[in-house]
Structure to design on (452 residues):
């Protein structure tokens, strides 16, 4: 197999059969040693983060498969910290798709004039560009279409899938007495043009609370998998 | 008449007949002594700016009336630097609606990864919140609806009106050999709920170029009205 990409939290390898292998690292995004799912830098390394993230990702991708949501997932090897996936290309140079059930993070930083911390939001979906230099700017359906990143039909599919996936994750968390505030997803196009959920779904992709208390990613993963 | 509001570039008075009077000042927005239509601060004072801005506003609002575009305009008194308008309330705490024919300014600051300086854009419309503290963040149709600022139907009306108005302004500038790159508009609701163009349309609301050279607001106004 061939190493093709080194991401913030993963190494990516191409396999001989045309599929890809994602190696989960123990690095998590954040700033000043504090975890922040919206941050662009690797903030800290936590022993066991890679394995716990992969275990939760496996759990959620298998739930999504049962619900017939298209994803890039094929199989996971927890001990090796690897996940095998089908090839997919990202939109433009990469998008993040966020679904929000309560106001937090960058939503408040932008819309704090109109929204209170923790205010209920109606499975609100927004798309941001992966662009560290420009602080991941939000981008509209019209702009994505105009700039050739995503057609309007693809946007509508992406939005619908995002809400379906977020609802499934929210329900799974609720079974463990945790409330999902927001979740960040990534999508790609498969070789036949189908839109697939890609990347991972771990504690590092979401914000969850229990009785008003924020739950760290590793604690969230522990709660979910015990 | 009663003074009701002091804006960056205007004073606002309520008249006895229920209408309002806008007094144009000689202040223009910008930073470090340079004009910038997207800036939130008054950058400089230019003698004659108020009168020239009002003359151009009168010119455009009368063109829009002829084209049956609903606006708040009633009449203008150039010598007194005042414009009489019908009452209208802004959406939320105020929105700016931008129509772009070429990439410049905040569009490039956000989407420079995908767009080149001066690249043609297809009468692209975007809405930003008037919020100096949060640098006027862009906001989507879904978010405007969710936060109770604008319904989706109102958004669609606003977008359509914006493109119609921008096209008229673009055509008028083209007659004087100037090319409109982008324009920033404000809208409000009339007392019967109709969406009206409000505020002004002067050099300070738009970016125009001639043969690749940027045209300052006062020069633009002079070109248009001579």
């Amino acid at each position: 197999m061939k190493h093709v990409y080194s991401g913030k939290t993963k190494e990516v390898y191409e396999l001989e059969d045309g599929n890809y292998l994602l190696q989960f690292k123990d690095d998590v995004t954040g700033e000043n040693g504090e975890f922040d799912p919206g941050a662009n830098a690797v903030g800290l390394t936590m022993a066991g983060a890679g394995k716990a993230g992969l275990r939760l990702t496996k759990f959620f991708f298998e739930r999504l498969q049962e619900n017939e949501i298209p994803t890039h997932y094929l199989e996971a090897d927890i001990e090796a910290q690897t996940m095998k996936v089908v090839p997919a290309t990202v939109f433009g140079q990469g998008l993040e798709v966020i679904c929000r059930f309560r106001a937090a993070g960058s939503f408040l930083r932008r819309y704090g004039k109109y929204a209170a911390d923790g205010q209920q939001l109606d499975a609100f979906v927004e798309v941001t560009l992966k662009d560290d230099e420009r602080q991941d700017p939000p981008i509209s359906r019209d702009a994505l279409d105009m700039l050739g990143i995503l057609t309007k039909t693809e946007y509508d599919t992406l939005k619908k899938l995002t809400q379906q996936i977020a609802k499934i994750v929210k329900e799974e968390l609720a079974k463990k007495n945790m409330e999902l505030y927001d979740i960040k997803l990534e999508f790609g196009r498969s070789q036949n043009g189908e839109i697939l959920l890609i990347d991972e779904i771990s504690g590092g992709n979401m914000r969850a609370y229990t009785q008003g208390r924020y739950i760290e990613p590793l604690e969230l993963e522990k709660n979910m998998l015990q």
Q: What stands out?
A: Chain B has a mean pLDDT of 93. Chain B has two domains: 2-88, 89-217.
